[in-house]
Amino acid sequence: MSKLGRWLDKPRVEFEDDVRTIKLLEPLRFINPGELCWVAPTSSVADGASIPKAFWSFIGGPLDDKYRNASIIHDFYCSTRTRPWKKVHTAFYDGMMASRVPLAKAKLMYAAVRYFGPHWTEMDSENVRVLRAQGITDAKKVQRMPVILHQRDYERWLDREETERPPLDLLRPFESEEMEMYAANPKVNNVRNNGPELMRTAARATENGDLPL
């Protein structure tokens, strides 16, 4: 495990009319030292508002230079409140360190957001639901995220020998036009059930007598 996190993307942004606010044209992803992925999705907006303005003079602006990536992620999670505030502020620090912000400044800005930045006691359940639908999961409640793969990607996903190019690019929403939606066998709601009938549609399971009475 790396002592530092790593950025998977370079931000592609456009400025809004007020010139101070930027909007992401593509997702911005960060993997923290604990291997948790933080994602600011396409169309996210950031203006550094999650960082106390009293501290802006120390860095020249939260969206400037090496602070930009970490500020975008921090703004997004402070606005959606889909992860605990302490983890969000720590991710801000980890993001700065991964961007090679000097240690003293990174610690100063971390202290600023931890003690004077946004705090919340409950996560926004509606935002959590929306982000889960987009494949962006809640760190506190979801430790695993299901992935839907094309058959051509099976071997690469299961290849444990691959260390230079981990298949993180496969963690993306599956094309909706290639999915089929159907009523599932109600047996899937009980963890004690485990059999091939769980893969059948409810209609076929009824025909085969696999549905519970």
Instruction: Give the radius of gyration.
Output: 21 Å
Largest sheet: 3 strands, antiparallel
Low-confidence stretches: 138-144
Distance between the termini: 49 Å
The average pLDDT is: 77
How many E-type strands?
A: 6
Strand order of the largest sheet: 1-4-5
- Structurally, how many domains make up the residues? 2
Shape: elongated
Q: Helix fraction?
A: 25-40%
The assigned structural class equals alpha+beta
N-to-C series of helices and strands: EEEEEEHHHHHHH
Provide structural commentary.
The protein is built from 7 helices and 6 strands; from the N terminus they run ββββββααααααα. With 213 residues, it is α+β, with helices and mostly antiparallel strands. The protein folds into 2 domains: 121 residues, no CATH class; 64 residues, no CATH class. The chain is elongated, with a radius of gyration of 21 Å. About 3% of the residues have low confidence.
Task: Provide a compact summary of the structure.
The chain has 213 residues and is an alpha+beta fold. The protein is built from 7 helices and 6 strands; from the N terminus they run E-E-E-E-E-E-H-H-H-H-H-H-H.
